[in-house]
Structure formats: C-alpha cells, structure tokens
Amino acid sequence: MTPEEMVSRLLYRDGLMLVIDKPAGFAVHRGPKGGESLEDYFDGLRFGLPRMPALAHRLDRDTSGCLVLGRHRKALAQLGRLFKSGAVSKIYWAVVESAPDTDEGTIDLPLGRLDETRGWWMKHDPNGQAAVTKWKVMGRCSFFPPPTEPRLRVPERNFTWLSLEPVTGRTHQLRVHCAEMGWPIVGDAIYGRAPRSGGPVLHLHAREVTVPLYKNRPPIRVVAPVPPHMRAALEQCGWKENEAERGELSFRGPSAARELANHKHDP
To answer: What is the average pLDDT score of the chain?
Structure first.
C-alpha cells in the first residue's frame, strides 16, 4: 500500500480524529512475528501534525470498514474513554450461513479464552467475560451451489445478511456469537466452516461508527462503503446500492481523497 492509497481510504478527518476504511486482510498493527500492518502507513496521515495518528481501537485482520484513529495523545485519551465507556456506537454488516428463526434479537453469551497460549482464540464460557450483541436481519437468500460432478445433488444453502451491534467489545465477539448461534460468518476459517486457506474472504464489515466526540455538537457518524468481496453476497440477500453509496465509491479516488484532506479544518 502506498501513502496515496492510504489517504484514498480516508472517510473522515477533523483536528482530533481520523476514520479510515480498513481493507480486509490487513493487520492493524504488527504482531509478535512482525509483518506488514496498517500502522506502517500512518505517517502519510499526519496532515501537518508532528506525530502520526494512532489506533483508537482495533479491528481483526480480516474485518473491513470503519477504523478510528486519534491524531495526538490528548485525542487518543479522549477516544479511549469513549470506547471504554461504550459511548461509541458501532454497526457491522455480516453475511452468515444458515438463517436465524426470527428477524432480530440479542445474544448474551460470556466469552473466555479457548487456549491460554493464544489470547485471541475465544469460546463461549459461562464463567468468562460478559459479551452482548444485538442483531437484526436485513435480508435473506437461498440458492443451490453448482455441483462438483454431473448429476450430483447439491443441497440448497441459506444465507442471511445481518446488522450486528456489539454492546460489549470482546475479542472476536461477533464471530464467536454468530458461530455459537448456528449461523457462522461466511469466510470465517477459525469459528466457521471456511477452509484454512483458499476460501472466501471473511464477510464481516464495520459499516458504521458514531462517535460523540464534541460536547456541543451532534455525534460524528461515519459510514464505510461495502467492500468488493461482500457485494455479490449482499446483492443476493437484497442489498441495493443507492445513489449516496455510489457517490461514496466514486469519491474515494486519490484526487478526491486529497480534496477531502484539504477541506477538513484542524482547530
């Protein structure tokens, strides 16, 4: 990823906060084994400040969408308090296998570590940390996958487009909750049915974030456009791209991103 490509993913900017559209397949920071991460490219998002921005929260490597950055230490501290207190609202879109019996509900399943040597690998644990997710069906679809051999009968498969709102922020919460309910997220190779390699990209997208950053202003709401790898499945489930979203996608070129960066005002 080039610095210009990073700037082209900018969704929002002011003097305290940036929101970028994180691509799927990128770690937000380097792990213990090193490797490329989004943080390697944050220097291109300084916009005149002496320090580059830093992560205000985390998204999984394979999750796409809204990622919030603080532009300096004071901003990071303020954003940290908002995230920790639950004041920041987050909406995710997911395509899951199978279908819930109802159209909306709440998942209340505590989570704990599956393996103490892997802190990120989670499971439902009655004695674990509280984890709550609100969900709503946005669309449903079913189809017969093409057979791998002639005259081989292939069962019909059901898929559901969900809106997920995490009330708590546990590691892999949405992925574990969906899998525990019997409708794992498409492309989930850890908790779902996807193969460890060569399968579809995880169909989990941080669609929207709302941050009450300023006391005397309305909360800042930022929406990330649907990523390319989820468009086909969402369209089958009834999603239709509207004029506003088409405008967002056409806007997010390098020259338009520079325009966005130049027209935001820093206090």
So the answer is: 87
